[in-house]
């Protein structure tokens, strides 16, 4: 069994939340990070991704499955149990996401200043 996901995995100060580029959509990189340690259920993903609505998370997971980044495995149990896990293609994004997070950490102040300046424009 894998360790529980932290509800603070993506807190407001996390560089991933201000990443100026996205893989697929706003949430894909975060889902990739959540699945790095192994398969997860939808409810487990909701813990650190609490800001995403269930509908949007479901759409993100479907898109990722369509693109071959994750696999969805439905167990033949009662009640039903579904888990999501990274494919080798999805796992290949971990290096890219790590590099993007590092870049965001190194340039976080500049990004925030630029966004503030943009918002202050008339």
UniProtKB/TrEMBL annotation:
The keyword Ribosomal protein does not apply. InterPro entries: HTH_HxlR (IPR002577), WH-like_DNA-bd_sf (IPR036388), WH_DNA-bd_sf (IPR036390). It holds the Pfam family HxlR. GO terms for molecular function: DNA binding. Keywords: DNA-binding, Transcription, Transcription regulation. Coiled coil: none annotated. Residues 14-112 form the HTH hxlR-type domain. Gene3D superfamilies: Winged helix-like DNA-binding domain superfamily/Winged helix DNA-binding domain. This is DNA-binding HxlR family transcriptional regulator.
């Amino acid at each position: 069994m894998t360790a529980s996901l932290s509800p603070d995995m993506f807190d407001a100060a996390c560089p991933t939340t201000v990443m100026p580029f996205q893989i697929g959509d706003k949430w894909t990189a975060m889902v990739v990070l959540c699945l790095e340690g192994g398969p997860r259920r939808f409810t487990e993903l909701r813990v650190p991704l609490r800001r995403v609505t269930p509908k949007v998370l479901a759409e993100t997971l479907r898109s990722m499955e369509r693109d071959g980044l994750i696999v969805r495995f439905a167990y033949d149990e009662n009640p039903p149990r579904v888990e999501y896990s990274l494919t080798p293609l999805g796992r290949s994004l971990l290096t890219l996401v790590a590099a993007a997070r590092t870049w965001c950490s190194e340039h976080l102040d500049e990004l925030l200043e630029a966004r503030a300046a943009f918002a202050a424009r008339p």
